[in-house]
Structure formats: C-alpha cells, structure tokens
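Assemble and predict.
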Amino acid sequence: MQALRVARRTILQSLPTMIGIILVTFFLLQIMPGDAVDAIVGMSGSASLETVAQLREAYGLDQSLLQQLAHYVMGVATLNFGISINYNAPVLDIILERLPSSLLLMLTAFVLALTSGVIIGWAMAAFASRWPDRLLTSFTLLLYSSPNFWVGLMIIVLFSAKLQWLPSGGAETIGASLTGWDWFADRLSHLILPASALAAFFVAIYARLTRAAMLEVLGQEYMRAAAAKGLHPMLLQFRHGLRNALIPVTTVAGLHLGNLFGGAVVVETVFNWPGLGRLTMDALAARDTPVLLGVLLLTSIVVIALNILIDWIVAWLDPRIAR
Amino acid sequence: MAKDGAEIIESGHAAIGPTALKAPTIRLPKILRDPFFVLASTVLTAVFLMALFADLIYPTDPLDMVAMPFLWPGDEPEFPLGSDQLGRDLAAGIVHGSRASLLVGFASALMGLLIGTTVGSVAGYFGGKVDLALVRLTEIFQTMPTILLIVVILAIGDPSVWLIALSIGLASWPMIARLSRAEFMRLRGADFVVAARGLGYGTPRIILSEILPNALPTITVAASVLVANGILLESAVSFLNLGDPNVVSWGSLIGAGRTEIRTEWYLSGLPGLCIVFTVLSLNIMGDRLTDILNPRSALRG
C-alpha cells in the first residue's frame, strides 16, 4: 500500500518533467538546419519540386507549428519517434536494440561507483582528519578531476597493452560462440575496464557525499545514546550510522544519473562498446536528426524511470518519507 | 565569546612559547602553508601564462609538421615532449591547446552563471508558482544527459569555440540555479531585505543590489567548479572530434593520439595530465574558498 502511494506520487511528479523534455526536443528539432525531407532528398540524390512538396505533405511538415507539435507529442505518446534517415527503420527499434548494452555498462558503473564510493567515504569519516582520510581525500580529488575517456585510455595502456590482463574493447569476443560460465566470464572481462573508467568520477562524488553525511550522522544524539547503551561499535557504525548516512547519498545519486548516461556515451566510443554512444556518433555524422533526438528523449525517460526507482529505495531506507 | 576564543589561542601560544623562542621563524599566512593551495595556484598561474604567451613560446602553428614522427619525450632536446605520427611537436600542441581549454572553460562557466543565477534568483525570490515552474525547468535540464544535450546542440551549427561554450553553458546551469535559489530563499526574509522593501525599493533593485551581493560569495565558489566542469566537458567534446578541426585543444590531442595508444601512449597521456592538473587545481581552489567563506564547514571536515 505504502509502496503504491510512493509510486503514484513520484510518477505524477515526474510527468511535468517528461512533458518539458518533449517540448525541448521538439524545439531543438525545429531549429535544426534542414528537415527530414531535405535529408531524404539528399540521400536519393535528386528530386523534383513536386516530389519534395508531396513528401512534406506526407510527413506533415507543411502544417502549422502547433499542429506539428500535436503530431509530435502524439507520436511520442504512442512510442513512435519517427523513422531513421540513415537506417531507414523506426527510431525506437534502433535505439531499443542498443539500449540494453548501454544500460548494462551504466548500471554496472553506477553500482560500482556507489559501493566503492560509500566504502571509501565511510573510511574517510571513520578516520576523519587523520592520514587515511587525507590520503583518500587526495585520491578522490584526483578521480574527480580526471576526464573519464582519458582514464579509460590509460587503463587500456596499463591493463590491456602492458599487462595483457583484460581486453581493450568490444562487449564480447567476436566469433567465439561461448556458453554458460565461459560466456559470462568473457562478458565480464570486457565489462570491467569500461565500467571502471565510467565509475571513477562518480566514486569521488559519492565518497565525498558519504563522508559529509557520515560526519553529520555521527554527531547526532541517537548515536551517542546507542553508544551509551553499549552497542558494539561495528553495529553502531553500520546499522545506526551508515544506514542513515545513505539516505542523502542515495537521493543525490539519482541526480547524477543523467551525467552518468552522458559519460557512458563518451566511454563507449573509447572501448568500442556497442551501445547508444556509438549510435549517437554515427547519427551525428550522418545528420540523422530523428535518431539523435530519439536518443536524447529516450535516455531522459530512462533517467526519470531510474529516479522513480531510487525514490522507492529511499522510502524503504527512511520510512518517514513514505508518509 | 570572541574574547574567550582569543584568550584560548593566546594561552595556547604561551604553552608553545619556549620552543618558539628557540627557533624564531617567519610565519607565513595560514593559506600559504597549505601545500595543496600552493600547488593549485602555481599550476593555474602557469597555465594562464602558457595560454597568454602561447604565440611567443611557440610562434609556429602547432599543426605544422616539424619533426620526425614518433619522437619520445626526451629523445630530442628541441622537442622536449616528443612528436606525434605526423611529426607535430607535442609541446607546442599542449601550449597552444591550453587556450581553447581555458577559453571554453571560462566562457561556458560565465554562460552557466548567467542563466543559473537568473533562474535561481527569480525562483528563490518570488517563490510560489514562479518557483515551482522554474524548479521544473531546472529539473528538465538536469535530467537530460549532459553530453547528449551538448552533442545535439552542436549538431545545429558548425562547431566553433563559441558554440561549444554555449552548449556547455546551456547544459550545466542547473547546479548554479539550485544553489542561488537556496541562497535567495534564505536571504529574502532577512532584515535588510525587509528594510529595503520598506524604503520602497523596486523588485529588480532589491534582487540585484541588495540580495545578489550577499549571495555572491557562495555562487563564486561554485563558479570555480563550473569552470573545472567546463574544461572537462570541452575536452570530451573535442576528444569526440566534435570541435573546430583547426583549433588545437587538450581534448583533441588526446583524440589524435588515440590510434597509437598501445605503443605511443604519451601522445594521449601528457595532454590528459594537463587537464587533470588544471581541473584539480580549480577544484582545490573551490574547496579552499569554501573553507574561507564558510569556516564552519572547515571545522566539520
């Protein structure tokens, strides 16, 4: 019942954002040089003025701006994002084909960043102002300042070129029809480097957040009360300290999902990862506007959906919020 | 209260007095004794000088082929950082590249500050429905994946340094908007604002000359992070080959060296280090400024 109420509230809250994003993409579509018909005509080489006019009519491009907007919103509502000029296939199909592998990379990086960030941040708070804290603070500051694609290239040099431990690109070994455990190990070995490169920056963010939240919690009265009743220090740190510190960290983590998706686009090109990043770059090169805007719109929808999920997790961590 | 504090410090000094007498040393101001701060300001000064005098240090076009290809750093004293696959001097590229990185970093930060402060101050000052609408607007831009939004904006026109700065500014203002909104909400009920209203000052005057100067310190600190962020995003854009092909930047150097990454890794490694050090210095500056402007955060950690 409680979960349902949280769900309804968060979904209702994200509706205006959703509509806003649709409006922004429509606006961007309008100011793009050339329209879908120009692109089709350009692909076919030559076309008479009548054919161009006919195509414009067929695509509804001769209508007023408001009608076009209504048309666009209806299309998005029915999951019709238009036809790709480059692939001559529905944009939705093309994107959905690539989305799982981008999501895999992004969510692996997210989990990696959150867990290691929380562990590092907790250690920083536990040793606050002593040398382990200073060392880890410098380390996170370094991670926070490194471009993710450069980190990716450098770990390719180290772990792939020099040590030859891990593959430097792709999502799996091509042509090796592996099954079961071998298949899993192969996929995992391809995932480790890109996920680490993408996670690096966010490890730093989450570690700094956890440290601040943990220090805040450690100063609370209930922590002193729990210590006074003789609770084991470990239980005190984890069940009373970390659990409460995780609430602000999880909330803010959701705010960075958009950035994480953006970072995935760049990291994917470094590692030849077959996801939305490469699709975006190809679409940009081919001036495939429907695909470009479709990627922007769909990734935004995914970010909103993941944020709803995070709201649930926060409500579970802190039952007061659900009320 | 303040007097008590001063006395504690005095007595503290008295306790270490004898040792201090033995070795009288010149006490540097506290901020200059912080190695991180010294490192950061040195790096930033060096990068600024590099960008300013790039044409004097390396008068020739950094895109010219001047050396044997694939010289390693240190191979030839004339080309201290080596050369790339086309025999272009890497040191010249790095010196000239600092211009694009700094220019885009600062221009995009200015852009982000302008939009963010406007949206945030209006939302925070008026509250209510205006606030709700502007918070929604901020959320929209925060939800869209940053790089994707930049890429789509870059698809609109020919890539120039200014369009890149504009696109980064458009993608990174939400952080400033949230911050200045919070500041304006905090300050709008302050006594001096109520007094200004009582004197019959107009709304624009209250926002611009009463509240804004008081909110500025917090926003300035965030601006250093915004510049750092702008440099990182610019490097990503030019790494992806979306920048102006005739302008060298650190990101484009990394992108150009990428094909030889397995053997000649210094070609991507060294420009990357420049980015890391510059961004790191800006972030350290931001951290220290926060400590100075808000001493309580320094006490907490």
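The mean pLDDT of chain A is 80.
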